Amino acid sequence: MEPILKVEDINVYYGSIHAIKGISFYVNEGEIVTLIGANGAGKTTTLQTVSGLLRSKTGSISLQGEDISNVPAHKRVARGLAQVPEGRRIFLQMSVQENLEMGAFTQSNSGIAKDLERVFEYFPRLKERRRQIAGTLSGGEQQMLAMGRALMSHPRLLMLDEPSMGLAPILVEQIFEIIQTLHKAGTTILLVEQNAQAALSIADRGYVLETGKIILADNASALLKNDAVQKAYLGGGGG
User: Fold this and answer.
1) Neighbours of 217 (CB within 10 A)
2) Are the beta carbons of 84 and 159 closer than 8 angstroms?
3) Angle between helices 112-122 and 139-151 (to 10 degrees)
4) Could you write out the three-class secondary structure of 125-167?
5) Rg of the chain over CA atoms, in angstroms?
6) Which has the closest alpha carbon to 33: 137, 160, 153, 123?
7) Among candidates 79, 88, 117, 86, which has minimal Cα distance to 101?
8) How far from 186 is each of 67, 105, 146, CA to CA, in Å?
9) C-alpha closest to that of 26 among 63, 58, 51
10) What's the Cα-to-Cα distance from 43 to each of 97, 132, 227, rounded to whole Å?
């Protein structure tokens, strides 16, 4: 079966800096796949290239068997790709509900009310705060809102960039429980996370990035036990 996402030999530059160096990976339908690595390893750059915010000089990116390398970012959303960016990037001056409605720009108006209810089932706290201005939410609530907004576009592949960043441990636990719930409901997930222990604990497979290259790829359970991974990313709480 064709992977839902196939990335082949991408090379990305920031000016003269070679940030991503010929990486290839894939995500099968129904999987949680995680990219782990230290700060500056190229995790966020990889996601931004997949979502169309950055361009690769070489290679290809395929979504459900179709090459989307030259498709603009907003059209990638319409084809089933949604990204929850690092730092959440919600619309701070809008209400919770308005933020969620912004996520549905690719959908017909007739289904939006139903989609809102579906998101509120996943995130009951957002329902309680649907009229509240998003900028007044806590960090954990803002992360939930960013995830809910992405779900409004009915993604075939949901990409999460550092969802645990800046959150208290109890909220990190909640966010990872929600990721597992979304996965069980049929959402395929590509997860970028500095908290390697948490990410590998819920993932099917993982890739380890170091200075723009994939240096290890394996089942998540094998990576958790891998000596090099333990030393670099697990011993110090995520690295």
Assistant:
1) 15
2) yes
3) 140
4) HHHHCCCCEHHHCCHHHHHHHHHHHHHCCCCCEEEEECCCCCC
5) 17
6) 160
7) 117
8) 23, 22, 19
9) 63
10) 30, 33, 21
Which residue reads 């619309």 in tokens?
91
In the predicted model, is pLDDT for residue 211 greater than 60?
Answer: yes
pLDDT the model gives residue 238:
38
- Pairing label, strands 32-36, 17-27: unpaired
* SS3 per residue for 40-86: CCCHHHHHHHHHCCCCCCCCEEEECCEECCCCCHHHHHHCCEEEECC
Q: Give SS3 for 192.
A: strand
Residue 107 pLDDT grade (very low, low, confident, very high; cuts 50, 70, 90)? low
Alpha carbon 180 to its chain centroid, in Å, reads 13
Helix (H) or strand (E) holding 178: helix 169-184
Beta-bridged to residue 10, according to DSSP, are 23
The mean pLDDT of 117-136, rounded to a whole number, is 92
End-to-end CA distance of the chain: 35
36 forms beta bridges with 208
For residue 27, pLDDT over 80 is answered with yes
SS3 210: strand
CA angle 32–47–5, rounded 5-degree value: 55
